[in-house]
Amino acid sequence: MKDVGIVGLPYSGKSTLFTALTRSGGAGGRSNQAVVDVPDHRLQVLAAQESSKKVVAAKVRFVDVPGGLTAQGIAEFRQTDALCMVVRAFGPDADPRGELSSLEAELVLADMASIESGLDKAVKKAKSKPEFKREVSVLERAHTMLDAEKPLLGGDFDSDDLKILRGYGPLTLKPWIVVVNVEEGSDLPSGMPDHSIAISAALEAEVAGVDAGEAAELLAGFGIEEPGLDRVIAACYRALDLITFLTTGEDETRAWEVRRGAKAPEAAGAIHSDLERGFIRSEVVGYEDLVAAGKWDNAKAAGVLRVEGKDYVVQEGDVLNIRFAV
Ligand SMILES: Nc1nc2c(ncn2[C@@H]2O[C@H](COP(=O)(O)OP(=O)(O)OP(=O)(O)O)[C@@H](O)[C@H]2O)c(=O)[nH]1
Ligand SMILES: [Mg+2]
């Protein structure tokens, strides 16, 4: 499961958004963690088709750090996989664009501090140990980008470079989404980046705390059709560059996350390490094809199931049945 850190300036509504997420999902072990389901309409369709007893969604964990971007907060955000930036667009003095710029500048500064101290140390080490030259060059390039106020995410780093960089946990190397916390019922203010998501955190928190009927009434009062929380969760999941594959049967229908580009054994390993270790092959059918066929057994009889081996790259929406032996 991946972690998403909720970052923002003071009073932007981070904890209010977090409360909404907690109410919709559940606690994540610690008081500042919320584990939520990744919305996926396919699960109910498959579960109905296979008469599954249980439905299990993929999950994402959100982390709200008290005090925000303090030294301790930054240390906690460094451990997360993505950032959900919250900016305030409610209240008379709202300045969401300015707030986003300040927030980005703070993230760049935080990275600058850690990259600079890393660079100093690496330069000293490289004098006697040539193996640190690579580290110096990567950190120098990172430094140049940050100096130009550019996030590291867009940088031209190869996988070895990234391994070195990730050791420093830079915040601007993480994928991020922007949540604009608007006045109830307002639209996204102009000038915000593409794909920004407008929600009212206060309304979402209220809606997440009541039953479906009341929730619909509350939303309708502001002319809103559906809760925005799902959009926030889905956007974070997409930003993490994960894909979902599915398993289905009488016991359960379930969504699993895997890295985009992962091959079948790695996907099997998301289910259980035995399945990766003992992977033999996988039966595969795309979600749409399975639904068109009606049921797993029908799909099999109709010959729409494919048999794929260790080199198969799993696709979004694949329904897998893994054969293994340990
Ligand atoms: N009108 C309105 N008020 C909101 C909304 N979201 C949050 N607030 C209010 O804004 C204030 C700050 O919200 P918080 O969620 O505590 O903000 P925060 O980002 O966690 O703040 P810090 O943790 O102090 O940095 C609270 O009084 C909230 O009730 C919203 O969508 N609309
Ligand atoms: Mg807070």
**N→C terminal distance:** 25 Å
* Biggest sheet descriptor: 7 strands, mixed
Helix/strand order, N-terminal first = EHEEHEEHEHHHEEHHHEEHHEHHEE
How much of the sequence lies in strands comes to: 15-25%
Briefly note the structural class of the backbone: alpha/beta
CATH architecture group name of the domain at 261-324: Roll
Q: Compute the number of strand runs.
A: 13
What top-tier CATH class of the domain at 261-324 fits best? Alpha Beta
Shape: flat
- How are the strands of the biggest sheet laid out side by side? 2-3-5-1-6-7-8
User: What is the overall pLDDT average?
Assistant: 93
Report the radius of gyration as a whole number of Å: 22 Å
Task: Find the CATH topology of the domain at 261-324.
Answer: Ubiquitin-like (UB roll)
Uncertain regions: pLDDT < 50 for 5+ in a row? none
Number of helices: 13
Hetero groups in this structure are: guanosine-5'-triphosphate, magnesium ion
| Portion of residues within helices | 40-55%
Name of the CATH homologous superfamily of the domain at 261-324: Beta-grasp domain
Jot down its keywords.
single chain; 326 residues; alpha/beta; Ubiquitin-like (UB roll); three-stranded mixed beta sheet; 13 helices; 43% helix; binds guanosine-5'-triphosphate
